[in-house]
Amino acid sequence: MIQLHRRTLLSSGAMLLAAPALIGRAQAATTLKVSTSFPNDPQYSTGRIWYDLFLPRLKAATDGQVATQFFPDNQLGQEADVVGQLKAGVVDIMLVGTSIWTNIVPEFGVFDLGYVFQDYDHMLRAAATPAADALQALLVQKAGARFPSWGRNLGSRNFITKFKFSDPAGLAGRKIRCLPSPVVTETVRLMGAAATPMAFGEIYTALQAGVIDGMEHDAPTIVSAKFYETAKFFTLTRHIHTPFGAFLSDRSMQRIPAAQRDGILQAVREATSDQFKRAAKVEADAIEELKAKGVTVEDCDRAAFSARVSPMWDRFVQATPNAKPMLEAIRQTQKA
Fold first, then answer.
1. Helix intervals (H) in the chain
2. Which end of the chain is more exposed for a tag (fewer CB within 10 A), N or C?
């Protein structure tokens, strides 16, 4: 009961934080509904930081003719629900990683392959290839969503757990929450854990109740969602560098006047680029914050994890042939 009360207060606080982040709706010709599962934390939340960068750019690019309503912290439902709302044009923009789209566009699973990227700069080089353009077109075709600019989360995905480990053997039998994506689930399983797919909004109580032994995510999200309150070991596995950004409803964009639509797309690209430049510092600050909260931060045997996971790459493209050009582009954009 105490925990429910705490979460209620957090949700109320999130709504108050969101209130100033609205552009004068009374005067605007168009209002965009923006949803994210990320918490409403202006310092460490991937979604909120992007949104705050987007607002002034949107105002400038549309001459104040486009306003927004911001719904963080799963206020409009879990991510899978919002995907449907985006396709229908009920939600106009969804701030999320590419993983959620894998269930509709399996080819996007290539970005979730463990250790496929060296870092986020490698991801950005791969995203600048014709293979990535083809996936963007496929997303519009299959999911009714546009992804105009490839961004990044505020850090690579790592493990925060209730136990200490440094190699695959240390994960044996441990229930680790992962994204409800088949590729991420298999990646975490190959790393040695009992992969447990779960919606983001269910993680905190699952950690608290002992339903799971840990979870994987980037450090800023772990700080903003307060997952460190029940798990005290943060291990730098750096197993996935997931693209992140603003996914726009194609149906919504088609009904918006062309001049406003062009301004929205410009603002999205500018905000995404700016966040990319700032992300590494936010991640470093979040790791220091975890240490200050009493979390033990340690490195691990990444080579051992990579050796177990990398054979999955070719198996994935055998099962998903249309993803082969993207995997080849990723390999070709590696640096020696």
1. 2-18, 46-62, 79-88, 120-127, 130-143, 182-190, 203-209, 219-224, 250-255, 258-292, 302-309, 312-319, 324-332
2. C
Determine the length of the chain. 336
One-letter amino acid identity for 290? L
CA Rg value for the chain: 19
Distance between CA atoms of residues 122 and 242, nearest Å: 11
d(CA 175, CA 101): 24
* pLDDT tens digits, 192-216: 999 999 999 999 999 999 999 999 9
- In the chain, the domains with their CATH numbers are 2-154+243-281 (3.40.190.170), 157-241+289-332 (3.40.190.170)
Nearest-angstrom CA–CA distance, 312 and 322: 16
Whether the CB-CB separation of 323 and 106 falls below 8 Å is answered with yes
Which residue type is seen at 310?
A: S
| Cβ atoms of 72 and 18 closer than 8 Å | yes
How many degrees, rounded to 5, is the angle at CA 282 between CA 276 and CA 287? 135
User: 309 pLDDT exceeds 70?
Assistant: yes
pLDDT in tens, 187-198: 999 999 999 999
- Give the list of residues 6+ apart from residue 232 with CB closer than 8 angstroms, or none: 162, 294, 295, 296
Sign of CA dihedral 284, 285, 290, 294: positive
Q: Measured between alpha carbons, how far is 260 from 265 in angstroms, rounded to an integer?
A: 9
